[in-house]
Amino acid sequence: MKLKVGTRGSNLAKIQATAVVNILKEAGLDAEIVIISTKGDRIQHLPIHKVGKNGVFVGELEGALREGAVDIAVHSLKDMPSKIAPGFTLAPPPAAPADVDVFVGTGDKFREEDLASMVVATGSNRRIAQLKHFYPDVKIVPIRGNVETRINKVESGLADGTLLAYAGLLRAGLSHKATAELNPTRFIPSPSQGLLGIELAEDRRDLLKVFTQASDPRAAFRMKVERSFQRELNASCASPIGIHIEEKEGEILLHGCFAETAEDPLIYATVTTTKEKASDDVFELVRKVKGHE
Ligand SMILES: NCc1[nH]cc(CCC(=O)O)c1CC(=O)O
Fold this sequence. Notes:
Blueprint: E1 3-7, H1 11-26, E2 31-35, H2 39-42, H3 48-51, H4 59-67, E3 72-76, E4 88-91, E5 101-105, E6 119-121, H5 125-134, E7 139-141, H6 147-155, E8 161-165, H7 166-171, E9 180-181, E10 196-201, H8 205-214, H9 217-232, E11 241-248, E12 251-258, E13 267-273, H10 278-289
Parallel strand pairs: 1-2, 1-3, 6-7, 6-8
Antiparallel strand pairs: 3-10, 4-10, 5-8, 5-9, 11-12, 12-13
Helix pairs in contact: 9-10
The structure holds the ligand NCc1[nH]cc(CCC(=O)O)c1CC(=O)O.
């Protein structure tokens, strides 16, 4: 019997699901993609944090898992809530192409300071809070839709540019649309940005083993540390939150930013640690971004 891999219908989602199908095929298992539409895809006129409180792209896929209509649900891990529904688990992910955000603009040059006087299209509370933190006079316009739609809207004149996850552009073959990479210690990426969320029923040890063998140690480390940061801050998808793990001369720097709501000031902090201590020291970063020194 063919394994069924559930995914949303966007181009990027299908590319991510194909990567999962290929992991299964490499392990000698036959698999096919099953497309499932989610609330986040159907409601296109609202900013994402108004569509639902948590996991607006996740509910229907978990429903399909629960009914047995699919064996595996593939998500962008950054779209997943801190707590996974009972009975399900997340497999450690394969290597991610990048965690950073990029600027996608109408011009061919970009200097970060130019943002000060630009019109930037984004609906993400994290990106809005970061833009306003460094460039209080920046103008923001809302935007929704999948990656291709957003790029089309910007190219049609909606704004001077938009901020997107580089991973999505790389996977979709659209990396030539990126004008420049943003500094990940200032435009700190979302927790788990670029990582695949491979969700399974807890009792599918057979599948968990296959994905564990295909997982990337660095990606698994990012998932552990970045999701514990998100969980500990009890962040909803409306809370501006970012974390970036930098490896530097044998040390690990944890860069984070957080605000309870889009109206609160964004607090930035950095903690220096090691690979071995990072999972404990991430709680130090949590305290700092909450404003407790
Ligand atoms: N919030 C929507 C979303 N979910 C995952 C990605 C991109 C791929 C990823 O980060 O894994 C995007 C688009 C974006 O933020 O540019």
